[in-house]
Design brief:
With 388 residues, the protein is an alpha+beta fold. The protein contains five helices and 30 strands. The longest helix has 33 residues, at 6-38.
Length: 388
């Protein structure tokens, strides 16, 4: 009897097994792609909300599609670890201004990035040496156009330009600005360099009703008309009834929105910016988060200065017929004040450079000119006034 060719049988079987495995592999490719895709979070727009769909199918709401007067936007970061999105902030024409936020894909750790007094239409990610930057674009609206470059990791503004679009420069990792006269490029190397420099000054914004002031680097307002009123309620107490009309001008100015905050934010060396109420100037100390000066103008003027720690309020007022009085009020309880000192000056006296000592809150300095005599370093020591 002829013996079977075991060698031929083995080769034939291996050929069949190979073909079977090849067919099985080809059939499983779409399934494997489907499984891989399901492990990646995705953003969907459904029923007026942006959602992140998790790998397990759970949906996490991120932000409304549309808020007052303008649409929002939500996108995944290139590494798909974060969601960057916008929300309305009430700034700019018809409240189209937007705040830029990011969060994890599960909706946690929501973090404020930057405030814009314009609509945000789009952004482009730029990555270099594991650092992330955002080119934020306003294509052109009632408050635009504009282009901002943010350091995503350090949460600060690096550059700002007038323009409505950017375009990738072929063969490079740079972008060129469109819509400006002078050619300007945005390159990752430049962004890395300037990101190590001193933080740029924040922009100052006011809301649509002009009653609150915001910094571009902070979510909440830093100053509003209530803070201005509250800071100088004590000054009202030292005004006779016939002079309280001066203080009411501030109330009316704030109530009517006649408040103007300077567009220049304080630098790191100057922590104060100026505001005006019915053309009456005041100053806000950014570092201390408080109003420290207010000038109620007019013939019967009143200037009020807070001491550094807020324990005293110095009020320099002019009474008819030109008599000047320096009144120091001390806080002895919440909303309760006492007159610590009143110093009177002649009608022809000129008091200037009124300033509290930064080292000793019980001392206040000023310059005094009476006639032709100028005294440049006058000092009042509250410890010697009988009350302190």
């Amino acid at each position: 009897m002829r013996q079977p060719d075991l060698h031929h049988f083995t080769i034939e079987q291996m050929r069949k097994d190979y073909l079977f495995l090849l067919v099985l592999f080809l059939l499983l490719i779409p399934l494997s792609n489907s499984i891989a895709e399901s492990e990646t979070p995705e953003i969907i727009l459904e029923n007026g909300f942006y959602y992140v769909v998790q790998p397990n199918g759970e949906k996490v709401a991120i932000v409304k599609e549309h808020e007052p007067w303008a649409p929002n936007k939500a996108e995944l970061s290139p590494d798909r670890q974060y969601v960057v999105y916008t929300t309305a902030n009430g700034l700019a024409f018809e409240c189209e201004g937007r705040d830029l936020f990011y969060c994890k894909t599960d909706g946690t750790e929501r973090t404020f990035l930057h405030k814009f007094d314009a609509h945000v239409d789009d952004w482009i990610w730029v990555t270099k040496d594991n650092r992330n930057f955002l080119i934020v674009i306003n294509k052109g609206s009632m408050s635009g156009p504009g282009i901002w470059v943010l350091d995503f990791d350090k949460k600060k503004l690096l550059l700002r330009f007038y323009g409505h679009a950017v375009e990738r420069i072929e063969g490079t990792d740079c972008y060129k600005l469109i819509g400006i006269r002078k050619e300007r490029k945005i390159c990752p190397d430049e962004l890395l360099r300037i990101s190590h420099e001193e933080t740029s000054k924040p922009q100052v914004f006011t809301d649509w009703s002009a009653t609150q002031v915001y910094l571009s680097t902070e979510r909440a307002p830093i100053l509003g008309y209530k803070e201005i009123l509250g800071a100088f309620a004590a000054a009202y107490q030292v005004l006779p009834t016939d002079q309280r009309i001066l203080y009411r001008e501030i109330l009316e100015g704030l109530a009517s929105g006649n408040v103007f905050f300077g567009a220049e934010a304080p630098s790191t060396k100057k922590n104060v910016f100026t505001f005006w109420v019915n053309s009456m100037p005041g100053s806000f100390n950014l570092q201390k988060r408080k109003v420290d000066f207010l000038d109620i103008g007019g013939e019967l003027s009143l200037k009020a200065f807070w001491s550094p720690l807020g324990r005293y309020l110095a009020v320099l007022k002019t009474e008819s017929p030109g008599i000047k009085k320096l009144i120091i009020l001390g806080m002895i309880g919440y909303g309760v004040w006492e007159n610590v000192l009143t110093k009177e000056f002649s009608a022809d006296a000129i008091i200037s450079n009124l300033e509290w000592s930064q080292e000793d809150e019980t001392k206040i300095y000023y310059s005094l000119k009476e006639g032709t005599v100028l005294k440049d370093s006058c000092v009042i020591d509250l410890t010697k006034s009988g009350k302190k």
